[in-house]
Automatic annotation (TrEMBL):
Record protein name field: Aromatic-ring-hydroxylating dioxygenase subunit beta
Entries under PANTHER family matching the protein: 3-PHENYLPROPIONATE_CINNAMIC ACID DIOXYGENASE SUBUNIT BETA (PTHR41534:SF2), BLR3401 PROTEIN (PTHR41534)
Coiled coil: none
InterPro entries per UniProt: NTF2-like_dom_sf (IPR032710), Rng_hydr_dOase-bsu (IPR000391)
Family per record: Belongs to the bacterial ring-hydroxylating dioxygenase beta subunit family.
Upper taxonomic lineage: Bacteria, Bacillati, Actinomycetota, Actinomycetes, Mycobacteriales
UniProt cross-references to SUPFAM superfamilies, sorted A to Z: NTF2-like (SSF54427)
One Pfam family, short name: Ring_hydroxyl_B
UniProt KW Cytoplasm keyword: no
Keyword Lyase listed: no
Length: 164
């Protein structure tokens, strides 16, 4: 296996995209967020913390392009419970480790702490993230898979009012 280092330019491009995604979500810039994903990408929040078979498992979220589009529409409409008085969020993503690195893609694991404020209450969520980023020769890199493994995924989850 090659030396999977964080200083590799391909890895740095992936991390930069992951941070841009976090900023877009905190800014509620859902249209930009949606454009960061490839057409065949999946956005997954599994319940089982150990599964990699998302298609055959029960998930909190298992979105393809169509479902991401519908989710963004709900967030922008203002009529759904998740969009009305949407939480303000700040997320910190760190502890990056490279899982796989090729000339055309990078898979990175990281840790996320998400702080949300809604209706005079704070909520903190922890999650392990896995992003697979497809690298483009023109620099238009895209997320082809994002898996959000919530630390408390097997407990009851309340309506969040934001994307993870």
């Amino acid at each position: 296996m090659t030396d999977l280092t964080l200083t590799d330019p391909r890895v740095l491009r992936a991390i930069e995209l992951i941070w841009k995604e976090a900023e877009a979500l905190d800014d509620k810039d859902y249209k930009s967020w949606e454009q960061m994903y490839s057409d065949d990408a999946h956005y997954v929040v599994p319940i089982d913390p150990d599964t990699d078979d998302f298609g055959s498992s029960l998930n909190l979220v298992y979105d393809d392009k169509r479902m991401r589009r519908l989710r963004v529409e709900r967030m922008l409409q203002g009529y759904s419970p998740s969009a009305v008085a949407a939480a303000r969020t700040v997320r910190v993503i760190s502890r990056f480790t490279v899982r796989e690195l090729t000339d055309t893609s990078v898979t990175v694991r990281s840790a996320q702490i998400l702080n949300a404020f809604k209706r005079n209450e704070f909520l903190t969520l922890g999650a392990n993230l896995t992003h697979t980023v497809v690298l483009d020769d023109e620099g238009d890199d895209k997320i082809s898979l994002k898996v959000i493994r919530l630390v408390d995924s097997e407990d009851a989850v309340s309506a969040s009012g934001y994307l993870l």
